[in-house]
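User: Could you check the structure of this?
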Amino acid sequence: MKISIASGKGGTGKTTVAVNLARTLGGTVQLLDCDVEEPNAHLFLKGNKIKEEIVTIPIPQVDEALCDGCGECGKFCAYHAIITLGTTPLIFPEMCHGCGGCALVCPTKAITEVGRRIGVVETIASENITLIGGRLDVGVAMAPPLIRAVKERLQNNLPAILDAPPGTSCPVIAAIRDTDMVLLVTEPTPFGLNDLTLAVDMVRALKIPFGVIVNRMGSGDDRVHDYCEKENIPILLEIPDDRRIAESYSRGILMVDALPEYRGLFHSLIEKVTSFEKTGGKINYAHV
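Assistant: Sure, the predicted structure tokens are below.
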């Protein structure tokens, strides 16, 4: 089963949920840090780096001897990564999505592709967890290709938890797409509710089953709970607003290790997710 952890905004506690859930799950589990612009799951997992792989995307290069300046490549590119003004095309690598379409439509076969580095994928072993995380190079604008590279290293025969980027834009879509369930992490505040509604619209558009986790419970009001009740959205876990959790987090120590009494919360979450899997993709509200 592949479970993605997402939120409509940053700082709600996605990584907190992801790493503690992975540690509590037991057995061998894959944890994919898909927040490639700001990966931080490795800060909480002590382990050994198994490998580091460079990731590239194909970008066009033009053979001036073959190019006749017809402009077909520029007409095809929706992102204006290659343009021509009746001369040899100008290429803007930072805007290229690596689709290869310009090379396909070139009538003179003047365009070939070369790899452009965008980042690395690291694999770390930490007890029962295999952490696969991407790290986008400085100055690279597009995260989705690196996120897809992280997901390509996922083994389908093992359970996987995907820590998605914050927000509801393309990187988040790339991370949660094709997962079995999304856990939306929020906080009981006006900002938390606003961004939760955006995230709910996103997962509903993608038709992925989901539930809500409320972090820092007790620090705000009941508007998130009222919204979930109105929308018939199950709240699968509530994490209290406990200063000790923040202190352990700031030291890079997992909540379930520093405060064993909270292991029960994550065991309860695992039971609900397992119930979801057994019911064929339907959340059993009797267990919520």
